[in-house]
UniProtKB/TrEMBL annotation:
It comes from the Eukaryota. It comes from Rosellinia necatrix. This is Putative zinc-binding dehydrogenase.
Length: 314
C-alpha cells in the first residue's frame, strides 16, 4: 500500500499484546492492511472514534452470522473469504468460530431479524447500520431514558424495534412476545448478564416453557455473539454461542485488507454515520481523564477522543 506522507489515516489496533500498536503513543507501528486512509470529509477526531468498533461489528456480522456485505458499496463476503483459507493458517483459538459454528445454509440474509443488546454502544451503532443496509430488521435493547430520543431522531440509527433495557426480565418478555420464532441472530455488547438475557430472548415462549409446538417447526439454529463475554449457562435448543475472531483482522492480510479497503469506500461515499465524539481530551494525561469521565457516566452513547499531539499543561 502506498500512502503519502501528509495523508491522514487511522490505524486500527486489535493486536493488544503488541505494545508497538496497542499503547497510547504519538507514533505507532502498523501493518499496512490495518491502515485506513481518511477522505477529506472525515476529520482525524471523527475517524479515531471508529476503529475497533467497526472491525468488531464487521466480523460479528460477516463471519459469526455469515452476513454478506456485497450489496453495500461492493463490500466483502467475509465468511466465504475466510472459508477459502487454509484452516491451519489461523490461530487455533479462532479456528472453530471461523469454520465450525455456522452452517453456510444458516447464514444471515435480507429479511432476518437481529437483536443487539447494549444498543447505544459504538459497536452497536455500526452493527445496526451495516445490518440495515444489508436488509436485516434490527431490534435494539438500550436504556431508553438516556438514549431513546437520540436513537429515534437519527434516521441512520433508528431501529425497527427499540426495547428498554432497564427491566431485563421485561425486555426478554417483550422480545419473545414481539418476535417469537423470528429472532435468529443476537449481538451482545455489554457483558455476561445481558448476554444470558439475550439468549433467553432468542427462545420462543413455547421452548422457554418446555413445550414443543405441533407440528414441530423446521429445525434452525440461532446464533448469539458475545462481544464482551458469553453466558455461563450452556447453549441449548439450537442456540450457538460465538466469540468474535478479532485476530482475523491483524493476523490475516486478506481479511484485514478487505475490511480496511471497504471502510475507506464507506467513508468516502458517506454511506455510514460516524459515532458522536462527545469529548476530546489533550495530551497523554488526557487518557486517564477520559477514562474517568466514562466511568462516571459522563460519556455515554458516543466516544471520547484523546489528541496526544497536544501537550496539556496541568
Amino acid at each position: 500500500m502506498s500512502i503519502n506522507r501528509s495523508r491522514q489515516v487511522i490505524v486500527i489496533s486489535t493486536d493488544y499484546r503488541d505494545l508497538r500498536k496497542a499503547a497510547f503513543q504519538e507514533y505507532v507501528v502498523a501493518s499496512d492492511f490495518n491502515v485506513v486512509k481518511l477522505p477529506p470529509t472525515v476529520t482525524p477526531h471523527a475517524g479515531a472514534s471508529l476503529g475497533v468498533a467497526f472491525v468488531a461489528a464487521a466480523l460479528s456480522l460477516g463471519v459469526c452470522m455469515g452476513l454478506s456485505f456485497q450489496n453495500i458499496a461492493d463490500g466483502p463476503d467475509l465468511l466465504k473469504l475466510v472459508r477459502k483459507l487454509d484452516r491451519n493458517l489461523l490461530s487455533e483459538d479462532i479456528q472453530s468460530d471461523c469454520f465450525d459454528t455456522l452452517d453456510i445454509t444458516q447464514r444471515a440474509g435480507p429479511g432476518d431479524w437481529i437483536a443487539i443488546w447494549g444498543g447505544s454502544s459504538t459497536t452497536a451503532n455500526i452493527a445496526s447500520q451495516l445490518a440495515r443496509l444489508a436488509g436485516l430488521h434490527v431490534l435494539l435493547i438500550a436504556n431508553q431514558a438516556k438514549h431513546g430520543m437520540r436513537l429515534a431522531r437519527d434516521s441512520a440509527l433508528r431501529p425497527d424495534l427499540l426495547v428498554d433495557s432497564h427491566d431485563q426480565a421485561r425486555a426478554v418478555d417483550i422480545i419473545q412476545g414481539s418476535l417469537s420464532g423470528k429472532l435468529r441472530f443476537g449481538l451482545d455488547t455489554q457483558g455476561r448478564d445481558s448476554a444470558e438475557a439475550l439468549g433467553r430472548s432468542m427462545k420462543t415462549r413455547e421452548a422457554a416453557m418446555g413445550s414443543i409446538p405441533t407440528p414441530p417447526r423446521t429445525p434452525t439454529t440461532t446464533h448469539l455473539v458475545g462481544l464482551a463475554a458469553l453466558p455461563n449457562v450452556p447453549a441449548t435448543g439450537g442456540l450457538i454461542y460465538h466469540r468474535v475472531p478479532i485476530k482475523l483482522f491483524h493476523e490475516v492480510p486478506q481479511v484485514g485488507s478487505a475490511i480496511t479497503l471497504w471502510l475507506e469506500t464507506l467513508l468516502g461515499k458517506g454511506v455510514i454515520t460516524l459515532p458522536d465524539v462527545l469529548a476530546v481530551e489533550e495530551g497523554f494525561s488526557g487518557v486517564n481523564r477520559g477514562l474517568d469521565r466514562m466511568r462516571r457516566g459522563e460519556i455515554s452513547g458516543g466516544r471520547a477522543v484523546v489528541d496526544v499531539s497536544v501537550a496539556k499543561t496541568i
